[in-house]
Amino acid sequence: MNIAALSSSLLCAAVSAFATSRSYRQLSPSAAVKESSSSLMMSSSLADEYAIRTQSNRSNELRWDFIPINHFAENRDSLNEGVGTLALKALESCGHHIAQQESDKMIAHSLQCEWTKSGTNVWSIKVDRTTKDTDEGNELDCVLSRIMVQCALSKITTTIPDGKEEAPNGNNEILLHVTLPLPEGRGCQQILFSNYNYDDCVRHLFTPLNSEYAQKMELVDMVNNNGDVLGSLPRPYVHTYNILHRGIGMIVTNKSIFDTSSTPDVYVHQRTSTKRVFPSLYDMFVGGVSTSGEDSTWTAAREVAEELGLKRALKVLEEGGDSTSLDNPLSDELFQCTICTSYNRCVVSMFAYTCDTSSETIEWQEEEVAWGGWVPYDVVEVAGELSIDRLKERGVWPGTGAENEEEEKVTNDASEAKVMELKGKYNSDQEEDQPWESWDFVPDGLLVWVAWLKWVKGNADVLK
Question: Is the dihedral of CA 39, 228, 115, 130 positive or negative?
Fold first, then answer.
């Protein structure tokens, strides 16, 4: 199919994409988006300086309202709330109904998406920017409008039962006529969609914005406040606009966290001084971003294999096993938490990996890790607490601070006493060169650590 350019502000492209199915270890292409369809009536997400309220008031429309996160700081105690806490507050508030009068005051602008059926398995999807001041768009609107198209597609595919309607070519494909914002003007695309070419469709959606991102960069999932997938986008956009996405965290121990006879050691590592982000900081977790459609369990198995060379869990999954397999060192998903900083917003699925030190050897890349070792769990607890205290003192802790000076003093006194107790209990070469009480941990990991401690406290069969 050939389509001529209509004008300099109207980009038209014809796409007939055919690709192989996603790997079996990933979610079904349409399911990854479909699973969010039930929560699209009212939910929220985060991107750049905005909390985004998503609404679907009619069966063929979707509206995203952009509300500045700073709006939620009006009654904020600046001493006790960090940037992450404020973003979480905005995320939670936008996921609930807001009175129309108050809503009108808060909304900076909106994106409106509508879709109509124009033939047998032929649909038209249109996204417009609505604002009081100007209709000029920006790159963020262009990016998120392409997520909205995927949300619309999830609605469309749920209204067409398999086999009930066939496309003209008999392949149950859907032809989409899409009209979207561009940095200058508007553009249209035609995309032939099927369950077997979902990633290709997403890449074609983003090609007019940045062809290199669209064709070469891995795709990741934007999610809402419930962790449901809204749609996929090239990973660089997630970092540029701090978009809420999916990821994993994992604690690696030398004995099971469910063995309550004694507490385990935790594998802690230090980043190299040459790392672009957080050079020389420590981490008590393995972490990583889930690729588009990738099951979190597979992300966890992949990340621990890549970062620490522990490949036992990945081998079990590749051989068709799961978390119930006796030889699988990877737990089921333990819990989810949402962490927010000025550079990272992620819904984290948490796992535990039990390393068999008699048969497994930890191996890391020298350009990534400067040091790594087994550290007693109670030492990690106190070291993490002290690291958080230092961030609070510098006013850069993204989480919640101490409620008052008296409480903070009691906490500091208890920490000093605990340090002396543990230094008498443990002694190591690592401690002499880099005292654990001075370890500064990655802030993102510390936010997950706070959630981890809360989860442990609420589970009687863990680490007791």
Answer: positive
